[in-house]
Amino acid sequence: MGFTANVCNFFYDAKTMSWDVILTILNLVGKKRRIGNVTPEGHPGYGGHWPEFRPPQETDSRCSCPGLNALANHGIISRSGRGISFIDLDRHVRATYNISSTLSSFVPHYAARMLKKSFNNDTFDLEELDVHNGIEHDASLLRLDAAFQPDQSTKHVPYIEELLSSASGKDKDGNDVVTVKDLSKLLGKRRAVSRAVNKEFTLKPFHKLFGCANASLLLSTMGGRVNDLHTFLLNEQLPEGWESRVRQSHGLTLVNFNKLALTIEVGVREKDWAQVAQEAAEHQGTTPV
């Protein structure tokens, strides 16, 4: 990356972070969006009516992110998952999940840099996002490590079912919900077992936080509700009648996104799973459990 690009990226990041702090403050003093009106009028999903869900075809492109795959499965972005502009991704992620303009822009910008593409002019296929140790990483909540499953669009159903069954909380309506502690606990297990069975295991601090950040979206946008997560994670589908649980007028900001991710990370106890990891390595050799 050239000097000019580095300078431009620096000023973009500084501007984005500064504006994000302002949006976070405005969220504190502003009114929340009314239930039933979180998705903007005129955007797919307004009033909880999502476009038709169609599972991906064999030639379609998908990635390790269920949120992006769901957008493609509903035709909110290209159903094929190919030829997607970074600008369109920014716009549709923001409106569908009620993500702040700063967060919804920052992630596609990061992806464009990772792929050495222009945010403003280029397009990408979803599968391109799964560059190992770019955004995709080992010890995922929902996927086998890339060493065992190179196609990271492939869901590992046992992991998802374990996540759903781990829910220890209840919301005010009595629905089962996944909590921060549940996510911290499972991430600790994933890291310990992957480290033990995957000879190619890597997990830098950045990717630890990225994994926690991904997990935090299950709490913020989906409210941790097991019924919704079942449809969202297993089918990569937006439930009929669903809308983002983020109700702040300016959406989920980078500040609050990272705050929740750090809370999850602080609770991760990989050492608590040392015995499980050892048994997995002895029992499975180099195959994860």
Describe the secondary structure blueprint for this structure:
Layout: H1 3-29, H2 66-73, E1 84-85, H3 86-97, H4 101-114, E2 123-124, H5 157-165, E3 169-170, E4 176-177, H6 180-197, H7 205-220, H8 226-234, H9 254-266, H10 274-284
Antiparallel strand pairs: 1-2, 3-4
Helix pairs in contact: 1-4, 3-4, 5-8, 6-7, 6-9, 6-10, 7-9
Explained architecture:
This protein is mostly helical. It has 10 helices and 4 strands; from the N terminus they run ααβααβαββααααα. It has helices spanning 3-29, 66-73, 86-97, 101-114, 157-165, 180-197, 205-220, 226-234, 254-266, 274-284; strands at residues 84-85, 123-124, 169-170, 176-177. Strand 3 (169-170) and strand 4 form a beta hairpin. The relative contact order is 0.15.
Descriptors for this entry?
289 residues, mainly alpha, two-stranded antiparallel sheet, two-stranded antiparallel ribbon, 47% helix, globular
Low-confidence stretches: none
Q: State the helical fraction.
A: 40-55%
Summarize the main sheet.
2 strands, antiparallel
Q: What is the alpha-carbon Rg in Å?
A: 19 Å
Overall pLDDT score: 95
Distance between the termini: 40 Å
**Count of DSSP-assigned helices:** 10
User: What would the principal axes of the Cα set say about the shape?
Assistant: globular
Query: How many strand segments?
Result: 4
Order of helices and strands: HHEHHEHEEHHHHH
What proportion of the residues form beta strands (DSSP E)?
under 5%
Structural class: mainly alpha
- Lateral strand order in the biggest sheet: 1-2
